[in-house]
Design a protein that fits this description.
Length: 482
Amino acid sequence: MRFFKKAALAGGALLPLMALAQYPGQIKKKSKDVPDLRAVAVVEWTGDVGKPKASRIVPISVFDGEKLQDAGIYLARPQPLAVSPEVEYELKYNGKTIGLFEVQNAAQEQGSWVGYGRWRALPAAKPPQMPAPEKIDDFQDEKPVLHRKRAGEAPDAGSKTGSNSSSTQPAGPDDPDHPTLHKHPDDSGSATTASSTTTAASPPADDPDRPKLEKKPAPTQTPTPDPDRPTLQKPPAQLAPDIGNVDAVNSNDPDRPTLKRGKSNGGFALEVAPTLMGVPPDMQQAVAVSDAKTRPEHQWTYSWANPEDEKKMQAEMEDIARQALGSTTAPKPAPASVPKRAGAPVHKTAKPAAPPPPPAPLADEQFRVFELAYGSGATMVLTATNDAPPPSRKFVTIIGQPDLYGNVRVLLKSVTDMAHLDDTPRMRLVDAVDALADNRGELLFELRGDGQRQFALYRIYRGAAEKLFVSGGGVYATVSSE
């Protein structure tokens, strides 16, 4: 993985340089001088998953090996390290990687840094390579085979009987259709050799119809040029060269602009997705992690031993949410009035028991269950609002765990309304994430106020919900809890 490695090395390289400036002696560079940075961010987009219409990434925290730093200002030159170009994030849902987000540029929105880039799909896994099948030769019977000659067998007509032998073996009967090779007489005109007893055949007579190759005689005079034939001539030296044909310009100015053929891209050869502005109502969020080291994937899904337990826990947490919102039951419909006739006798009958009123509905309900550490049990989070007009709308967020008796034990409960968002923000769950690289998950919430927002990390430990980190300076420092 290369996710946060390039930017992490660039930022961590300052540490040994600072130590070298303070101590003039010899210093050995250690691997611990460059910390293993781990950044957490939130990707926000509109549109479909994987193909957003507009998107952005909001930096949250950077773990430098000792504590959490605010990613919005950590090593800003001028943009923070977490949103530097070519930094790559893994997008996760419930701990499972669902895509990649590569930062390409950054800008400020309402005084906070955000990054822009593109959403990329995960690389496809390579299929296992099958062993190559053994080659089967279908023509084994047609291959030539060498055999040793048996004793007493006559050699072939074209083979020699010895290295010093000057005679040839007699050949078989002459075949009139069999071609024979004859030795050509040498230049001296001798048709026989010292060791040969046969006479070479005389050369055949010249065939008058046989084509002959003859060397072409050199031309004695140059042909007369054709006055109508077009000729290519070199332009005279006194003519000025074409000013539009410039091969190179000797300039050492690095800021000198250069003209290139093609579509203008503003200096970046990258395709940037449309930026997301504001907080639209259809905006979706996903947690993003960028790490300099390769770490195993840790999913936060909790598996219930009995599926009915999940329904029971959710119903109990919904009742707690209704009590916090002040709407325990749904409004009763007005009974229909029946007109009475004058002089009609009145009969008293026993009224049947009225059915219990239905519970009040919850709007924008979200119920999720996590296993934030191996064998830690279920951690439940419920967020909802009441079905009321905006002036009197309320918001509730509850974090709970099952107790020993099978009931819900509330670890944190936050209730606010539209009139008090600046004092007590609305807590919106984003997801669980391992911000400290210790195989324990923290709950990441968005603290959304009336005109500003921040993000907070909560750690669930020993039956309590502890606020671990708040981005952006911690304006929302207190959240009502029980």
